[in-house]
């Protein structure tokens, strides 16, 4: 069996990574690694990440409406970028004395961002292929 729509697999991996991020620490307090900051500590930040994961999950099943799937994927790219930026800002302004854990949560968000961008590129490629077939008819 050959996977025909790689973008669905990429989006699924992005959903899993974004969901896992909600339960992993993204910062530690000072040099003491026993106190970690989770997205649960900032409820609005947690809601942003859950909404992003839900939108990514919904976009997997919109393969019949390629334009809408591409739009939702673009929104997810923007939300993932905002999530990374807000997480960095939260770490250095709201929770003073914290350091970002680069081996933890933000790496997952960055990988999810790259996977979503790649999935969107594959969607665009499919869209262009379908348009070329419509021109031939």
How large is the share of residues in beta strands?
A: 5-15%
Summed up, the helix count is 4
Q: Please state the structural category.
A: mainly alpha
Task: Give the N-to-C terminal Cα separation.
Answer: 30 Å
Blueprint of the fold:
Blueprint (H helix, E strand, L loop, with lengths): L5 H16 L5 E3 L6 E2 L5 H18 L5 H29 L3 E3 L4 H32 L1
Antiparallel strand pairs: 1-2, 1-3
Notes on the structure:
The protein has 137 residues and is mainly α. Helices cover 69% and strands 6% of the residues. The chain has four helices and three strands; from the N terminus they run H-E-E-H-H-E-H. It has helices at residues 6-21, 43-60, 66-94, 105-136; strands spanning 27-29, 36-37, 98-100. Strands 2-1-3 form a three-stranded antiparallel β-sheet, with helices on one face. It is elongated, with a radius of gyration of 17 Å.
